[in-house]
Amino acid sequence: MKSDLLNLSEEQRGIRDLAREFAMQEIAPFISEWDESAHFEPSLVKKMGDLGFLGMLLPEEFDGLGVDTSTYLIALEEIAVVDASAAVMMSVHNSLPTQMILRFGSDEQKLRFLKPMARGELLGAFALSEPEAGSDAASLTTQAVRDGDDWILNGTKSWVTSGNHAGVILAMARTDTPSERKGARGIGTFIVTPDMPGFHVGKKEDKLGLRSSPTVQLSFDNLRVPNANLLGQPQMGFVYAMQSLENGRLGIAAQAIGIARAALEAATAYAAERHQFDKPIREFQAIQFKLADMATRVAASRALLHAAAHAKDRGENVKQATSMAKLFASETAMFCTNQAVQIFGGYGYVKDYPVERLFRDAKVTEIYEGTSEIQRIVIAREQYSHE
Ligand SMILES: Cc1cc2nc3c(=O)[nH]c(=O)nc-3n(C[C@H](O)[C@H](O)[C@H](O)COP(=O)(O)OP(=O)(O)OC[C@H]3O[C@@H](n4cnc5c(N)ncnc54)[C@H](O)[C@@H]3O)c2cc1C
Predict the structure, then answer these.
(1) How far is the CA of 137 from the centre of ligand 1 (A)?
(2) How far apart are CA 154 and CA 148, in angstroms?
(3) Which end of the chain is less enclosed by CB atoms within 10 A, N or C?
(4) pLDDT tens column, 153-162
(5) Rg of the chain over CA atoms, in angstroms?
């Protein structure tokens, strides 16, 4: 019997099956073509919205499903098994912009944005990184200057997932002045929409993997944002972003587990079919041990992820737990996809089988929403923080 250690409720099984069915019908047949041409399929957004996948953590009053974090992550893993690109779009949207507006937004902002976001009418994006501000995100330089009832934003945001298809972009910009810099406490978060004058979509990145998730640069050229679109307090935007990235990291961990599981499933099937020396290669202990290590790491990643999700829903401090889950799951995705290519031999190195794409898709999970080095820094810091 295969072990996943999760004792799913009937509701969770229903949502998992719906996600699986959706991904198999609407994405799987096109996956190679979209990967090859780096095509983002915009109709997926509305379809996912109609099924509730873009408002999973939003309360029903905002047309969300209002499920717990674990249930959301189960659906996300299922989408990621088929397509890591659709999964990152779903993860960013559910974990970052919608949660930030729900947690820190005004009543008016919630009413204006959350329902269309839950329904898939407005896709969300998160714009923190800049060309010179990656891991050290608080060093960002996009400047916001108050002008009457508006703010004027100038600067460049890089690596914005879904940034060229988003209807709502949560963008961080400095609200302190060049003469009085306040570091992480001098940054605001603004709700930017693409119809605002001065909003420009720049370079679309040509990526190794995750090719059907667009990643773009955005530039703000005297972008005029009404003060009504400032999220919460003008000095607190970076704090809001960091708190929300704890959710984001759980989503990326679920995405990584989906990629790892897809590699495990493909390799398990292939090892039964492929014959060498007159027997299926799964009869060689060298192959069995690879499959055993892969299965163990997938199960351990999932257990860590859902323990963190339950602790989060209980209101506990999960800074260390979310970083552990993201770190372990992303390294599991790299490990499993690497082993899967090895099990496929030469056939793993070409596009006729899915493991070549999975190997390319896995790498970014060790980079975005905090690199593995940054996760280790957070984990170590938390280890000493309560002394
Ligand atoms: C496909 C993709 C999608 C993305 N989507 C988004 C998005 O939607 N929104 C967004 O805001 N950003 C997004 N990002 C940006 C992503 O979060 C950053 O790439 C990431 O935070 C790392 O920043 P960097 O690339 O500038 O690397 P750097 O920070 O320059 O790091 C380079 C290397 O140095 C290491 N390093 C840096 N600082 C330390 C340290 N203190 N100690 C030890 N090692 C260190 C890093 O771990 C890394 O190995 C995306 C990135 C990619 C590739």
Answers:
(1) 9
(2) 17
(3) N
(4) 999 999 999 9
(5) 21
Which residues of the chain fall short of a pLDDT of 50? 1
Ligand 1 center to residue 252 CA distance, Å?
A: 14
Catalytic residues: 369
Predicted pLDDT of residue 7: 87
**Ligand 1 atom closest to residue 213's alpha carbon, by position in its atom list:** 1
Give nearest CA residue, ligand 1 atom 44. Answer: 373
Amino acid 185 reads R
User: Which structure tokens are listed for 310?
Assistant: 């339950």
Number of C-beta neighbours around residue 221 at 10 A: 13
pLDDT at 178: 87
What confidence tens digit (pLDDT) does each residue in 136-192 have?
A: 999 999 999 999 999 999 999 999 999 999 999 999 999 999 888 899 999 999 999
Contacts of 205 (CB under 8 A, 6+ apart): 159, 215, 216, 217
For residues 151 and 307, give the distance between their C-alpha atoms in angstroms, rounded to a whole number: 41
In ligand 1, which atom is closest to the CA atom of 161? 8
Task: Give yes or no for residue 128 CB within 6 A of ligand 1.
Answer: yes
Count each helix (H run) and each strand (E run) in the chain, helices first. Answer: 12, 10
Q: Which of 139, 142, 159 to mutate to test the pocket of ligand 1 (most atoms within 8 A of CB)?
A: 159
The model's pTM:
0.97
Q: Is 139 in the pocket of ligand 1 (CB under 6 A)?
A: no
Within 10 Å of residue 7's Cβ, how many Cβ atoms?
Answer: 6
Query: What CA–CA distances, in Å, run from 295 to 105, 135, 340?
Result: 41, 31, 12
Report residue 271 as tokens.
Answer: 């090892």
Nearest-atom number in ligand 1 for the CA of 371 is: 47
Q: Is the CB of 8 under 6 A from ligand 1?
A: no
